Amino acid sequence: MRLYFAIIFIALNSALGLGQEAEFHFLEKTTVKLGDFKEGETAKHKFYFVNSGDAPLLIYAADVSCSCTKTKFTSTPIAPGDTSFFEVTFDTNGKYYWQDREILISSNAKKKEKLRIKLYVIPKEEEGH
Question: InterPro entries under this entry (predicted)?
């Protein structure tokens, strides 16, 4: 009889655990306009977020479409209620005028998140005009 109750207890515990999910809650907009930069400068921005879910958040990757855009983020699990950030840097060398970059985040959260930075790069030959 004890074995029966132990099996039911374990089964219920497992079933309840399956409903737990990690979830991003960004503390600002996920699309930001960074302003104007001279060609050769590096643009940086941090996107802060909270794990508003009830399971640890694991970030696997932050994919970008251009090698001019880099991201930094923690590789350790983010506990429910804890805050962390994505740091995005954009190298303006060889880039001109309006730039629009998207970062696609892969994690164990229910849905994929997208971050986006927008900026204007003033070409070197136009500086001072």
Answer: Cupredoxin, DUF1573, Ig-like_fold
Identify the structural domains of the chain with CATH numbers, from first to last: 21-126 (2.60.40.10)
Q: Looking at the DSSP assignment, which residues form a beta bridge with residue 97?
A: 121
Residue with tokens 């995005």: 88
CA angle 89, 117, 109 (to 5 degrees): 90
In this structure, what token pair is assigned to residue 93?
Answer: 């060398």
How many other C-beta atoms can be found within 10 angstroms of the C-beta atom of residue 41?
Answer: 15
- Can you tell me which residue has the tokens 């005028």? 97
State whether residue 85 is helix, strand or coil: strand
pLDDT digits (tens, 9 = 90+) for 69-115: 999 998 899 999 999 999 999 999 999 899 999 999 999 988 889 99
Closest CA to 87 of 99, 105, 100: 105
Cβ 22 vs Cβ 109: under 8 Å: yes
> Are the CB atoms for 87 and 44 separated by under 8 Å?
yes
